[in-house]
Write a structure and sequence with these properties.
5 helices, 59% helix, mainly alpha, 121 residues
Amino acid sequence: MIDNLGSDLDQLLPDRGQRPVLDFLRQGHRPHLLAMGERTVCLAAADDWLNENETDESAHKSRSWLNQSATDKQLQYLPPEYHQDFGLTRYQASALLTFKFNKGAITKLVMSAGDNERRAA
């Protein structure tokens, strides 16, 4: 079910070969585009962002979330189909919620980046 995030992004992008990399992990900050292009370019941009912004403490917290089950509070804000997904982790639930809460801003960023690319071509 976590694949829903990818399908939402695919609907926003006219060329499915391109992926945006967004910075929307910090609370209280609006998302902004880190890179857009081929998968390797986007992964490199995300890795650079993590190297600059992640601390040892936050890396350890993220690592521990990879296998812990989603909390009741997280499930409360997710659509009903996720409530019976017993394999859903805190990390996946957090990613889904962050995307849900920022979907409008992400859509605006991706669409404006696509417009800028078309103008440059």
